[in-house]
């Protein structure tokens, strides 16, 4: 039957679904439908849908009853989904095995279950995993219209940062960015002319969406496996002509890209400040810096802002445009991002 649905392009589907779910507007009696590049999200009250969303009448399937892991257990298990893998963080091996069995018996589209066996460690920030089900640790993850292949045992990747990555990617060639440029008297820069430098690129969760928005991107990482996946992901997403993967210490690479970047990503919390000199080297005359940090909740932004000013103010006018809390990291500690404008 026809029901009211919010219609959005597929790459906006995840964010739209989350927005509608937060407002308790999704009609769970019907399935979300995909057709011709559009996503149709059934809604209970079309009049309550926020402005800016298109509401159409659409024939969609009624939702069938699905068996969840909680239906098969006496408790609500905690896990993350990454592609067709479920990721657990359980200290009790019996409980971990019980959750894994319930996940596989449920209607979730999961083939692999992994349990964290260590904390993130080493220069490449990888962790050990216990394979509870499936054939390995390689997965294919889809996020905001991009597809990423990766091996969780060989590279660092956090699905929890998907919304944050999308927030930053939307600034590449965005209308909001153009409006900011015009307000300041500068001419807007076309997205296809933007040059982005990711200092700790991993498998490309920033680089790939930047390139899909037309930017010319350089992604640097010391993890050779991550750089191999970055090359593969550039091919998967059809942007290999706009992505330059480099396996090296970014401090060695930055001088080769002196005064080059319009946008720099520094997603290495705890130690990004040690690489600010290289960021200043790579920054162009007018550059946006996305600086990630983890600090105590009493002053989450101050240490990063002071470090950036100390590194850059001899050459640049430094303007902090956004102070953004990404997530809670640990008791009394916050993972934050500073979006900073550097103008020579």
Number of helices: 10
Looking at the structure, the CATH topology of the largest domain is: Rossmann fold
The CATH homologous superfamily name of the largest domain equals Vaccinia Virus protein VP39
Tell me the CATH architecture of the largest domain: 3-Layer(aba) Sandwich
Chain-averaged pLDDT: 91
Straight-line distance between termini: 59 Å
Largest sheet, in brief, is: 7 strands, mixed
Q: State the helicity in percent bands.
A: 10-25%
Major sheet strand order: 13-12-11-14-15-17-16
**Rounded radius of gyration (Å):** 22 Å
Poorly predicted parts: 175-180, 182-191
Structural class: alpha/beta
Number of beta strands: 17
List the domain count as a whole number: 3
Instruction: Give the class-level CATH name of the largest domain.
Output: Alpha Beta
What overall geometry do the principal axes of the alpha carbons give? globular
Give, in order, the helices and strands: EHEEEHEEHEEEEHHEHEHEHEHEHEE
Strand content: 25-35%
Task: Describe the model.
The structure is a single chain. The protein has 344 residues and is an alpha/beta fold. The chain folds into three domains: 58 residues, 2-Layer Sandwich (Alpha-Beta Plaits), CATH 3.30.70; 68 residues, Met-10+ protein-like domains (GMP Synthetase, Chain A, domain 3, 2-Layer Sandwich); 184 residues, 3-Layer(aba) Sandwich (Rossmann fold). Helix content is 25%, strand content 32%. The strands form four sheets. A seven-stranded mixed β-sheet has the order 13-12-11-14-15-17-16. Strand 9 and strand 10 form a beta hairpin. About 5% of the residues have low confidence. Keywords: Cytoplasm, Methyltransferase, S-adenosyl-L-methionine, Transferase, tRNA processing.
């Amino acid at each position: 039957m026809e029901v009211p649905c919010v219609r959005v392009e597929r790459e906006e589907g995840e964010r739209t679904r989350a927005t509608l779910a937060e407002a308790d507007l999704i009609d769970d009696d019907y399935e979300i439908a995909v057709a011709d590049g559009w996503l149709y999200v059934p809604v209970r009250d079309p009049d309550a849908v926020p402005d800016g969303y298109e509401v159409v009448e659409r024939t969609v399937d009624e939702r069938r009853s699905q068996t969840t892991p909680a239906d098969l257990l006496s408790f609500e298990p905690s896990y993350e989904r990454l592609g067709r893998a479920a990721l657990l963080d359980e200290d009790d091996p019996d409980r971990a095995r019980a959750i894994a069995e319930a996940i596989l018996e449920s209607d979730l589209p999961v083939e692999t279950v992994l349990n964290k066996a260590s904390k993130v460690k080493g220069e490449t920030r990888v962790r050990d995993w216990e394979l509870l089900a499936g054939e390995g640790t390689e997965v294919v993850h889809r996020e905001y219209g991009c597809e990423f292949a990766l091996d969780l045992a060989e590279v660092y990747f956090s699905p929890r940062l998907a919304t944050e990555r999308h927030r930053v990617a939307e600034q590449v060639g965005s209308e909001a960015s153009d409006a900011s440029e015009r307000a300041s008297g500068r001419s807007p820069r076309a997205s296809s002319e933007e040059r982005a430098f990711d200092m700790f690129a991993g498998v490309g969760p920033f680089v790939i969406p930047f390139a899909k928005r037309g930017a010319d991107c350089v992604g640097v990482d010391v993890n050779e496996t991550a750089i191999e996946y970055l090359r593969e992901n550039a091919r998967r997403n059809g942007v290999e002509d706009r992505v330059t993967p480099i396996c090296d210490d970014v401090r060695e690479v930055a001088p080769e890209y002196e005064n080059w970047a319009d946008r720099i990503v520094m997603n290495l919390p705890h130690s990004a400040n040690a690489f600010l000199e290289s960021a200043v080297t790579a920054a162009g005359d007018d550059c946006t810096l996305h600086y990630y940090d983890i600090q105590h909740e009493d002053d989450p932004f101050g240490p990063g802002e002071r470090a950036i000013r100390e590194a850059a103010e001899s050459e640049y006018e430094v303007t902090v445009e956004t102070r953004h809390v990404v997530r809670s990291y640990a008791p009394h500690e916050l993972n934050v991002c500073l979006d900073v404008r550097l103008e020579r």
